[in-house]
Amino acid sequence: MNQPVPDLLLGEFRPQMLKFARLQLQDGAAAEDVVHDAISAALEGVNRFSGRAALKTWIFAILRHKIVDALRERGRTVQISSLEKDEADMDEAFDALFAANAHWHPASRPRDWGDPEETLAQRQFWQVFETCLELLPANTARVFMMREFLGFETPEICRNLDISTSNCHVILHRARAGLRQCLERGWFNPEVRSAC
Length: 196
What we know:
With 196 residues, the protein is mostly helical. It folds into two domains: 5-74, Rna Polymerase Sigma Factor, Chain: A (Orthogonal Bundle); 80-195, Winged helix-like DNA-binding domain superfamily/Winged helix DNA-binding domain (Arc Repressor Mutant, subunit A, Orthogonal Bundle). It is built from ten helices and no strands. It starts with a helix and ends with a helix. Mean pLDDT is 75; it is low at 76-81 and 192-196. Keywords: DNA-binding, Sigma factor, Transcription, Transcription regulation. Residues 12-77 form the RNA polymerase sigma-70 region domain. Residues 129-177 form the RNA polymerase sigma factor 70 region 4 type domain.
């Protein structure tokens, strides 16, 4: 490792950590607290870092646990109206993907993405994925990250956000469809891939 761990944590990783924590906690002060706690825990446990995973993966795992603890501790809720606004913004985009019979329009049909293992191993893919995640409405991205990154089960997401199970499933479907559409334009498009 070229840079010392404290420099990476405070310089390179901290802004990304804050951005992720703010998305999940919807509170700047709470985000600062969990990032501070995660960095402190990482600095205290740096001698236990074995290097089996990337340093960023390790520190974000610590942050993830701190965020989960904070969400569970606070029983945090968001206003349902903000989730409904996100959904309304995405409705128009998704309506264009499907014909009146609820089948894909031919131009919108999902394409073959090739070997998923090979794709996931590429760092550039994850940069495109992060950009696509940022393009989702904030609360839609939040629900997706609670499910897929933080590991919350649907009932827990629904309790935390005070939404119904069916609403949660709709939001997750829209998040996945939005990510798929973005990834097809930004990563799985043969013209884009040849430029990488």
